[in-house]
Amino acid sequence: MTIKHILIAAGALGLGMTTVSAQEITLRIQNHQSPESLSGQNIAEWVDDVQTMSGGRVKIEMFYSSAIVKSVETFDAAINGIVDADFTNGSYQTGKDPAFQFVADVMGGYETPWQFYAWLYNGGGLELVQKLYESYGMHLLGWQIPGMESLNAAKPLRNAEDLKDWKFRSPPGMETMIFENLGASPVVIDFTEVFTSLETGIIDGADASNVSTNNSLGIYDLVKHTTYPGFHSMPADHFAINLEVWNGLPEDIQRIMDVASQKNSFRTTLDYAVDIQETVNELAGEVTFHDWAPEDRAAFREGARRAWIDFATTDAAKELVDSHIAFMEKIGLTTSGLK
Questions:
Q1: Could you report the per-residue pLDDT of 261-295, keeping only the tens digit for each?
Q2: CA–CA distance, 215 with 14 (Å, rounded to integer)
Q3: What does CATH list as the number for 2-101+126-146+236-266?
Q4: What pLDDT, in 10s, does the model give residues 225-237?
Q5: Cα Rg of the chain, angstroms
Q6: CATH no., domain 151-233+279-330
Q7: d(CA 274, CA 270)
């Protein structure tokens, strides 16, 4: 970050000396979204909000589509001062500590983004997350949660029983553990290879993204069953800023960035909710949407919770899992006292 202090002092008619302090602050930030995407458009609005509300004191250089370093390297780039902040996803850092998984996506846990936000702001999550991020010299400013993702299949996916022996594309990591617990056969395949793998029959379905993104990828040209509303995954892209940079910002600028980030978070979720529902309406009659009953979602959650506990191999991860489980019980999402 480049900070230039300008001090202006003036006296007036013996009434004393007034000192006004101004700053010019430049922040370099990388994200992994395209500028055309809904998330990318809302990031651009966040930039405009911060620059405008700061009266031009803050200038932000935003780099889209991981233009400086690879997406998975952005967090370290922010730690090391190559950029000032990282607008990607905490799950890229699970190699550092599995705790980052439970910041990025509590797979099978919450049923809506608003429940996930509520854990952060009302369930004590923010304090735990800040402790994790600060241990790496970073500060969490906020999240973007585009919405619930959907599973896509060539066969009906009506409940947990339908997952048995289902061969589908899965991202790496904890998700494979969850679905193996439920009898499925996840195959780790890169996101860019989902369509080809479905087209050639290597897999019978895929966990790719939300309904509108799945549709844009052409997935529903190949398979005609999907879970909606989704519940198994809702990734939260984080906005994490170098801790030293954050601590060096004036308090009013910190507050502006915090307020703008919450606006960005909630507007992103709302925008995707509308976009996803419009896509569902367009696909009506072509695609069968499976809305799981509460008892079937509970069965999935139990399989997921076993994977959470197995995946949480550090004290920080265990602390986050315990916090999530306690909050889910508080809002009525869990069915047993599994710890």
A1: 999 999 999 999 999 999 999 999 999 999 999 99
A2: 71
A3: 3.40.190.170
A4: 999 999 899 999 9
A5: 22
A6: 3.40.190.170
A7: 6
